[in-house]
Design goal:
The structure holds three protein chains of three kinds. Chain A is α/β, with parallel strands linked by helices. Chain A has helices spanning 42-46, 51-54, 57-62, 77-80, 83-90, 104-118, 132-141, 157-161, 170-175, 185-192, 214-221, 234-245, 262-274, 291-305, 316-324, 336-340, 385-395, 398-406, 416-419, 422-427, 431-438, 450-465, 471-488, 500-507, and strands at 94-100, 121-127, 149-153, 193-194, 197-198, 200-202, 208-213, 330-334, 353-356, 369-370, 374-378, 442-443. Chain A has a five-stranded mixed sheet. A three-stranded antiparallel sheet of chain A has the order 8-7-9. Classes of the chains: A alpha/beta, B mainly alpha, C mainly alpha.
């Protein structure tokens, strides 16, 4: 289900227990008025942003985590930026940050250190989680948005950027040395740049992966699971999930997201990308029903025969619950299926699963899909663009993102320095495969209208999954819907509000690269 | 009965006009309030349906939305779904309620038990939807029970087939609202004239025969009114769909309410959603004028 | 004679069987759902359903710590109580007019009032959403109050009307010859006698109002206006997925007060629901 759009911002950005750790507030720091003179010593604040303070106690104990950083301090923006300079230039100003209403309190907590470090006051503007999209657009259109900064589901970047609602951040990124290079290309290019301009800082950096239950699959495969060779193709995945489906005991072969709307679209994109599917040609014609697209959908349909009951109604919430509850022997879902399942308070399958390298399809490519995710932006009507930028840089900084990952709260880092950190890898099972996969990631372009398009296509794919129409009909219908939605959004005669040439490099960053195994 | 002690102060003689106007004045606040809440949206919906609305940009399209809707497979599907699911649910709960009422109304014990029969009705519809979502889909409890009873061998995929998915919605609705009809029918039966029953019993008639030939026909007005009210509510089924299926499989459980919601608040086609609303409104008015008014009249008699 | 007696006892067995079965059908899902509310998260979704879970107050802790449940409850109570008050203020005079007076258009007006119940929420949802957005009432308990009142006014009017129909005309005539004005009659005779009916109507309206889902979903967006019926949706979208045990607990927090109310007016409930279509 995950009916409301809170499902989209399925990562609660600063959910309590997220950036802060269950032991909420920072000890020893009073909350002073933000006069320059009242600001505490920078280092003392930074010293509070550490594993001991931010990561949940039960997890720290479970993995015997020291207070050593789970990131590279040289790439951690909050520890490299000159806070005194920030305080001098922008101290005393205010930034208005639009936040999902459910996250208000934890956001306030999470931003206190920023206020102390920068002298900038943050005002939270709560937006109902399921209205972020339309509320944001309404505010943008009104020409006077009531907020300076916003974090949102990255698929909407096109809708927000194309009409010029977002402020370019290139200047600020250069001035304050934002470590853009530390981002994996797929996130930097797709969540950050639109038409050659930097308008967003990637926040929740998602990727979908394939996860297997050891206890079920090892008996079928006849031995321990090798991350590369055990399930090298989707054909093999179909075979073993069919076997797993016969095991009984309430366990189904595989879990997938097959619900109406964009969930089905994501599943299809995931598999079809491995078949070599690209969504558009360079004239912005949708190319959904190509051979690769068809191959992808047919594979999905084959897998759905081995899937858990209710797959045609499974959104992220249902799929996650089924996986963590031990109801499926394999799962096609985001990387956090591989981390959250490690945590005993959430999962029935601790220690009984592994995340493998993306299986391939003959004639296709190795293209682990970068799907969903979220990004953070500054509005073009903001009166304090620089302050807003600094706040976003704080929220997305490597250390905080690394600790989000350690807390397994679903917010994922996209930094090479973080995903390569050995200590973090020790507490995040999929990280090695995940990091290697990102160099080859596939991604869909962020176009205006993409949100609608994903839903329309997903409804058709759902009909195919439930056997009401054929795969060909589904993709044909989807393609027709995409054409008409794109026309509504200004795509005509091969060009539109987004330049294909600017987007092209981010669509498949693995092109031509050697496999990581 | 003695009349209460009323102020005997002299009061101004009311003019005949005031006398005549009085009932209208009594009704005025209620009617005005309802008009405001129903008329305004109706007019607004009609107006908005003539535009393609993309947030704050309204582009005139005349009957374009209506054209689109009438050609929209999903619209007709939603209409059909609402009808099928609603009709089946209504029939099942009416039948169940009548059967239970027949067995219950003569029993003195029932009075104490009554609250148990009422309980499903007192839950929030969204809560009931979650109960059955968990029981059928996520928790697979129903499948498990059926397996233990030996009736099936594997878990059932309730969302994979159209009849089964619709059935889960129907079960949720029937479970929650049969008590509503039940309690009305029981009251109706208990309120019927005892003498006719007694006379029939003395003649040697069996209870079932009495029910069928006497009680049921006498209950007809009540049945009509109750079923009409429930029927009206069923056509607006939303919470169950929203929570349990979201229209799956492939839109076969998408009711009109959900369709309108989705068009307006997921696809942000407000003009389109308004057009659907207007069509729905027209349909409702037609049904109201024909079916309901007739039922209402006969019910009053 | 013996034959008749035998038949009756057979009938009784069948009767108890059927009624007992239905009682179980009503009760078991409720009890099971209650058990969901009091178990740890990891025992809700499992490969095979757990019928004897371990007891846990995790859901309670989650509710009281992370979510302003008291606030939601307050919003529910305020919106519902307010809407019931509005309904009574508007509905009692209307019911009085419809029941005691003959005037032109009485049936049509009465039918209009009844027909507003047919206004499908989805039809009016979009316009109402825009309207409230314009006047700035979005995300406020007042908006909910107004909507619930509108939805239930027809019900309240008709229930009270049916009770008023039963008041013997002589009572009123006597009072009128004593010189009382119509309003006084309404206030001092009719209302007190109809009090059971009024209370019944109020409770029924409250039940329907607290259950309202679609409008609340659209209009309420923050804890300022969230009510219990939509608060459930909170537990389905965040990074924790669907939190069933919390959902179950919230459901019961809303259920218990209504149950108590209904137990108190049990006697009158059926009468109210039949709306006087039946004598007695």
């Amino acid at each position: 289900m995950t009916t409301r759009l809170t499902g989209l911002s399925r990562r609660s950005f600063l959910r309590s227990g997220a950036a802060i750790g269950a032991a909420a507030s920072l000890p020893g720091l009073a909350m002073p008025a933000l006069a320059q003179s009242g600001l505490p010593d920078v280092q003392s604040v930074l010293d509070q942003i550490t594993v001991d303070k931010y990561v949940r106690e039960d997890y720290r104990k479970l993995y015997s985590m020291s207070n050593e950083p789970l990131w590279d301090p040289a790439k951690d923006w909050i520890r490299t930026v000159d806070w005194e300079k920030v305080r001098t230039e922008l101290g005393g100003t205010t930034v208005r940050f639009a936040i999902g209403a459910a996250d208000q309190e934890s956001a306030a907590e999470g931003l206190k250190p920023f206020e102390l470090l920068s002298g900038i006051k943050v005002e939270l503007v709560p937006i109902p989680d399921d209205s972020i999209y339309d509320k944001a657009i309404a505010e943008f259109i009104s020409g006077n948005a009531s907020f300076d900064a916003l974090q949102f589901f990255s698929a909407w970047l096109g809708d927000f950027a194309a009409p010029g609602f977002l402020a370019p951040l290139d200047e600020f990124a250069a001035k304050w040395n934002l470590p853009l290079d530390d981002f994996y290309d797929t996130y930097r290019l797709n969540y950050g740049y639109v038409n050659g301009q930097l308008v967003g800082i990637p926040f929740d950096c998602d990727i979908q992966m394939v996860h297997l239950r050891k206890s079920k699959m090892e008996q079928i495969l006849g031995g321990p699971i090798d991350l590369v060779t055990s399930v090298p193709t989707y054909e093999e995945l179909i075979r073993i999930t069919a076997e797993a489906n016969k095991l009984g005991g309430g366990v189904a072969g595989i879990g997938m997201l097959g619900a109406r709307g964009f969930w089905s679209t994501y599943t299809w994109e995931h598999v079809a990308a491995q078949a070599g599917m690209m969504l558009f040609d360079d004239q912005w014609n949708p190319t959904l029903n190509t051979d690769a697209g068809m191959m992808g959908l047919e594979t999905v349909l084959a897998l759905s025969k081995n899937a858990i009951e209710g797959v045609s109604g499974a959104g992220w919430g249902e799929n996650r619950a089924a996986w963590l509850g031990g109801q499926v022997a394999a799962n096609i879902s985001w990387q956090d299926s591989g981390t959250q399942a490690m945590r005993p308070d959430q999962s029935q399958i601790v220690g009984d699963f592994v995340t493998i390298y993306e299986p391939r399809i003959a004639g296709g490519v190795f293209a682990p899909p970068n799907i969903a995710g979220s990004t953070s932006v500054v509005t073009s009507t903001s009166q304090n663009k620089e302050g807003a930028f600094l706040m976003l840089a704080f929220l997305t900084t490597a250390s905080i993102m690394a600790m989000n990952e350690a807390n397994a709260n679903g917010v994922a880092p996209g930094y090479k320095s973080v995903l390569g950190n050995e200590r973090l890898r020790a507490v995040s099972q999929p990280m090695k495969v995940w990091a290697a996969s990102l160099e080859h990631a596939w991604c869909s372009p962020r176009l205006p209208g993409m949100f609608e398009m994903e839903q329309a296509l997903g409804n058709e794919i759902n009909r195919a999954i439930t056997g009401q129409i054929t795969a060909k009909e589904a993709l044909d219908n989807g393609q027709a819907a995409w054409k008409s939605i794109m026309e509504k959004n200004g795509f005509k005669g091969g060009s539109g509000p987004i330049n294909y040439a600017d987007v092209a490099p981010g669509l498949y960053v693995g092109a031509g690269k050697a496999l990581p195994f | 009965m003695a009349t209460p002690n009323l102020r005997k102060a002299p009061r101004p003689r009311r003019s005949p006009i005031m006398r005549r106007a009085f009932p209208y004045l009594l009704l005025a606040p209620a009617v005005i309030y309802l008009l405001a809440i129903t008329l305004y949206p109706g007019v607004f919906a009609i107006y908005q349906s003539l535009f393609v609305v993309r947030f704050t940009s309204w582009t005139w399209t005349g009957l374009g939305n209506y054209q689109g809707i009438l050609q929209d497979r999903e619209f007709w599907a939603a209409l059909w779904n609402t009808f099928v699911i609603g009709a089946i649910a209504l029939s099942v709960q009416t039948f169940l309620a009548l059967t239970l009422a027949y067995f219950a109304y003569r029993d003195p014990f029932i009075r104490g038990w009554r609250i148990v029969y009422l309980m499903p009705m007192l839950f929030m519809p969204s809560a009931v939807a979650f109960i059955w979502k968990l029981a059928f889909n996520d928790g697979r409890v129903i499948s498990d029970i059926l397996m233990r009873l030996g009736l099936i061998e594997r878990n059932v995929d309730w969302l994979a087939s159209i009849p089964l998915a619709r059935m889960t919605l129907i079960v949720a609705d029937v479970w929650q609202w049969t008590p509503f009809l039940f309690i009305i029918f029981v009251a109706a039966l208990q309120g019927q004239d005892q003498e006719i029953e007694e006379a029939a019993r003395l003649d040697g008639a069996s209870w079932p025969k009495i029910f069928w030939n006497i009680s049921l026909p006498m209950m007809r007005p009540v049945i009509v009114v109750a079923v009409t009210i429930r029927g009206i509510d069923i056509t607006t089924m939303f919470a169950n769909v929203f929570v349990m299926t979201q229209g799956t499989p492939g839109g076969a459980t998408e009711t009109m309410s959900y369709f309108i919601y989705r068009q307006g608040f997921r696809m942000f086609n407000f003009g389109y959603a308004s057009a659907a609303s207007v069509l729905m409104l027209i349909l409702t008015i037609i049904i109201a004028q024909t079916v309901v008014k007739r039922a209402f009249r006969s019910g009053k008699n | 004679m013996a034959q008749v007696r035998k038949r009756r006892s057979d009938g009784r067995l069948l009767r108890y069987l059927i009624l007992g079965t239905w009682a179980l059908v009503c009760l078991l899902p409720i009890l099971w759902f209650l058990s969901i509310g009091f178990r740890p998260r990891t025992e809700v979704i499992t490969p095979q359903p757990i019928y004897w879970p371990t007891f846990s107050l995790d859901a309670w802790r989650l509710l009281t710590s992370d979510w302003p449940i008291a606030l939601y409850l307050r919003n529910s109570v305020v919106a519902v109580a307010g809407s019931v008050v509005i309904d009574l203020i508007l509905g009692i005079p209307a019911a009085y007019a419809l029941s005691r007076y003959e005037f032109r258009g009485r049936d049509d007006i009465g039918f209009f009032i009844l027909s507003t119940r047919m206004m499908a929420p989805a039809i009016v949802a979009v316009p109402i959403f825009f309207l409230f957005k314009e006047i700035g009432l979005l995300d406020s308990v007042w908006a909910l109050m107004l909507i619930y009142a509108a939805i239930n006014l027809s019900l309240v009017t008709w229930i009270i009307r049916s009770y008023m129909l039963d008041i013997p005309k002589e009572l009123e005539d006597a009072a009128r010859t004593d010189g009382a004005s119509d309003l006084t009659i309404l206030r001092e005779i009719v209302i007190p006698i109809c009090l059971p009916g009024i209370i019944t109507a109020a409770v029924i309206a409250a039940i329907f109002a607290i259950n309202e889902f679609l409008f609340t979903l659209l209009i309420a967006s923050t804890s300022r206006a969230y009510t219990m019926s939509v608060a459930l949706a909170n537990f389905t979208g965040g990074s924790d997925g669907i939190i069933y045990n919390a959902i179950a607990l919230v459901s019961f927090i809303a259920f218990v007060p209504i149950l108590i109310l209904v137990i108190l007016i049990q006697k009158h409930l059926s009468r109210g629901l039949t709306m006087g279509a039946v004598k007695g």
